[in-house]
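tRNA-specific 2-thiouridylase MnmA
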Amino acid sequence: MRVLAAMSGGVDSAVAAARAHDAGHDVTGVHLALARNPQTYRTGARGCCTLEDSRDARRAADVIGIPFYVWDMADQFHANVVDDFVAEYAAGRTPNPCLRCNEKIKFEAVLDRAVALGFDAVVTGHHARLDGEGRLRRSVDEGKDQSYVLAVLTQGQLDRAVFPLGDSTKAQVREEAAARGLAVADKPDSHDICFIADGDTKGFLQRQLGDAPGDIVDGRTGERLGSHNGAYGYTIGQRKGLDLRVPAADGRPRYVLSITPVTNTVTVGPREDLEVGVVTASKVIWHGTSTPVECEVQLRAHGEVYPATVTVEGDTLTARLASPARGVAAGQAIVAYQRSDEGDVVLGSATITASAPLLAAHA
């Protein structure tokens, strides 16, 4: 099989490419240049959009013995990931840029170009598995599992994807990289958002959107408790950095309950007011299982899972949770899993649009 290996410059993608080569595939490595100006993105080992990463990927391809190219996808990345990130926050939602990058860049733009060039599939270093029926499953290393951010892929995209690392732990991948003589064996994992150079998300959004002063109000009484310079600087469930001028009568901390862009208002309240039992979502990707279905849902990357009853009607997914979840934010993904002895299977995903209190789940 002729495959294109997406090589980020990290240890996972290097070992994935090497395994594909060992399996007898005709492998070509490609590094995605995603930054319009790489110097404005992260440097060192903290991101996936650096000049160092490009060089590391090339060196890994040389060791493996495969052809290597760099594809400039900076404009597509900026339009589909960076601009989307800013627009979602401006609309009061909390996006996941890694999920959007997988959807729009690695498994849409890259896969489409690869197929047009005659490749059969795209190989990546994601920690996830595809079973014999082409179903997406969690990695055996649940701490590194990335099925959540891959659940936006269609079945057609999954059919042209290869994830060689799903049956290995991260420690095993690093050991193998060292044994292969790959210099990235001990390279730290990337963290945070790759296109925010200093890791200051609030500062980045402020530079993009400007100051937009508004009120912080109590969710139960409507009392004005303080002010903010931009509602985009807050996320559901946030506790720190609220700078409230009026303390709670009971002395307990307050959390962000909701963000309303129309009135530019941030609403706060006690922790128990974050509890939700019904989650509604749109942009559904569903893999054929009839609903309603008893399953488990994950509401954020590396977050808890909750038993739920999921129903899909048209482009709307509704999850009725068996126990309350907190900090559920519109814009994040909800991913449904079916637990099995062979590993959790992804049933589908959707983008969260709204949530309701636990009582509504049993109405």
